TrEMBL record:
InterPro entries: HisE, PRib-ATP_PPHydrolase-like. One of its GO terms (cellular component) is cytoplasm. Its main location: cytoplasm. It holds the Pfam family PRA-PH. The gene is hisE. This is Phosphoribosyl-ATP pyrophosphatase. The lineage of its organism: Bacteria, Pseudomonadati, Pseudomonadota, Gammaproteobacteria, Thiotrichales. Belongs to the PRA-PH family. Keywords: Amino-acid biosynthesis, ATP-binding, Cytoplasm, Histidine biosynthesis, Hydrolase, Nucleotide-binding. One of its GO terms (biological process) is L-histidine biosynthetic process. It comes from Thiothrix eikelboomii. It catalyses: 1-(5-phospho-beta-D-ribosyl)-ATP + H2O = 1-(5-phospho-beta-D-ribosyl)-5'-AMP + diphosphate + H(+). It is found in: Cytoplasm. Pathway: Amino-acid biosynthesis; L-histidine biosynthesis; L-histidine from 5-phospho-alpha-D-ribose 1-diphosphate: step 2/9. Its EC number is 3.6.1.31.
């Protein structure tokens, strides 16, 4: 799988899993368990990422961030959003100073 296509290809698989029976697939099982379970996984994977970084374990940081990104993609799909929506937002912010962007936010 080409790296630049992985988000969109994975999003297609996650969309297909909406039709799959829960016992046939990890993603289908997550959907059937619902939003709170997906959010709990995101919280767990974020915490595991923090621990890996505090431990200074680069390999583990990448592993845990992959889990975090994956479960974030499951959340996007569950909410009928696309990875492209997040990429578009990052694109919109590109080149805009974080300080200027923060100052322009509605209070
Ligand atoms: N990229 C992933 C991926 N990354 C992580 N995981 C799963 O996410 C879970 C991570 O949770 P944990 O580390 O807490 O492990 P766990 O204790 O087994 O999890 P729980 O049972 O406690 O929820 C594991 O079950 C991993 O297998 C993933 N499962 C699926 N994918 C992709 O999604 C596609 C569809 O997967 P299925 O729906 O299973 O076919 C796959 O082909 C992959 O491309």
């Amino acid at each position: 799988m080409m790296n630049e296509q992985i988000l969109s290809q994975l999003a297609l698989v996650l969309e297909e899993r909406k039709q799959a029976p829960p016992e046939s697939s990890y993603v289908a099982k997550l959907y059937s368990q619902g939003l709170d379970t997906i959010l709990k996984k995101i919280g767990e994977e974020a915490t595991e990422t923090v621990i890996a970084a505090k431990d200074g374990d680069k390999e583990q940081i990448v592993y845990e961030l992959a889990d975090l990104w994956f479960h974030s993609l499951v959340l996007l799909a569950q909410q009928n959003l696309q990875p492209q929506d997040v990429l578009n937002e990052l694109g919109r912010r590109f080149g805009l100073s974080g300080l200027a962007e923060k100052a322009s936010r509605p209070s």
